Amino acid sequence: MKSILFSLTLTAILFPVWVHAEDELPRILFVTQSEGFVHNPVKRGSGERSSAELAIMQLAKDSGAFSVVCTQNAVADFTRENLQNFDIVAFYTSGDLPITEADFDYFLREWLPQKGKGVLGFHSATDTFREFEPYWDLMGGTFESHPWTQEANVTMQVHDPEHPTMKPFEKSQFAFQDEIYQYRHWEPEKVRVLMSLDMEHTELKRPYHVPVAWCKQVGQGRLFYNNMGHRSETWQDPRFLQSILNAVRWIDGQLEGEAEPNPEVSQAQHQASEKFASAAGITLEKLEAEKKAREATDAARRAAREKRAAQQRVPN
Ligand SMILES: [Zn+2]
Question: I need a surface site. Which of 109, 159, 235, 238 has the fewest CB within 10 A?
């Protein structure tokens, strides 16, 4: 008995972070409600779980590191009362969710700033509440468009390879296939950017910084966002899944990782992107002119359609 007690104590001393009683594990509420675009990984079959839900449930089971409840019903589950049952809210959502301003305000100002609380955002978490400032200010950016479609092969650059959420990607530069966003409301002074599009090695270039993953501190709470996850394949990628697991442990305080904003990285990335895009003949002015030309063509088509419709309405 004594030796069992001794070895248990020794285990607790040597591996304090792993000795987590079942009821002390971080509890995740995984919200995958889509009020806008519905991504394949969050589509549920008849009464079944989606592939993203299954992936997170499997991760919880295999790691024994957290528990998860999945919901596509924010009205019932994203409430002040129900938030008491969770430590982390994970969003893979879209559009304007049916969350009351009072509940969101509580979530942002009282619930999240506590030690051990956190937010995980995947892919279209930034295509959620696009016009609701408290949400996009929390998330760190808002979807604007995705010049890099799901067929695109892009190259990622990791800025903080020692951060627990980035370690699983192993390399400071790697190729990946997924849909990548560009953002509005990007606030580099408020976040620590961890991964960006490597504009030098990505074929389709843009003359500005395109962040991919970042984190921030909210009071004593923590947020981690990763743009990856449009494709179902991403939810099978061991690096992506290990990064989620590490993010949970980082939020829980088991793993150390900086959250200090690094706007200088954004600035350097912006300058590098400008350089590589301009060498490929792509400038902001050119993109702006192309956009105007597209809008003019669309307007002309619309006018022609309306004219035809009006002519059809004229009685002979
Ligand atoms: Zn997408």
Answer: 238
Residue with tokens 């969350």: 99
Type of residue at 305:
R
Predicted confidence at residue 11, as pLDDT, reads 47
Domain count, the chain: 1
C-alpha 225 to ligand 1 mean position (Å): 14
Q: How far is the CA of 205 from the centre of ligand 1 (A)?
A: 19
With contact defined as beta carbons under 8 Å apart, do 154 and 142 qualify?
no
5 lies in a domain? Answer: no
From the CA of 39, how far away is ligand 1's center (Å)? 6
- Ligand 1 centroid–CA 148 distance in Å is 10
Q: Quote the ligand 1 centre to 124 CA distance (angstroms).
A: 6
**CB-CB contact of 179 with 194 (8 Å):** no
Using CA atoms, how far apart are residues 2 and 51, in angstroms rounded to an integer? 47
| Range(s) of the domain holding residue 183 | 18-279
| 0.85 surpassed by pTM | yes
Q: How far is the CA of 302 from the centre of ligand 1 (A)?
A: 28
In a domain, 71, yes or no: yes
Asked which of 4-8, 154-158, 267-271, 294-298 is least confident by mean pLDDT, the reply is 4-8
Within-domain flag for 7 = no
User: What is the distance between the alpha carbons of residues 189 and 113, in angstroms, rounded to a whole number?
Assistant: 19
**At 55, which CATH number?**
3.40.50.880
Roughly what angle, to the nearest 10 degrees, separates helices 51-63 and 238-251?
60
Q: In this structure, is residue 1 part of a structural domain?
A: no
CA dihedral sign of residues 257, 122, 85, 81? positive
Q: Are 87 and 116 in contact (CB under 8 A)?
A: yes
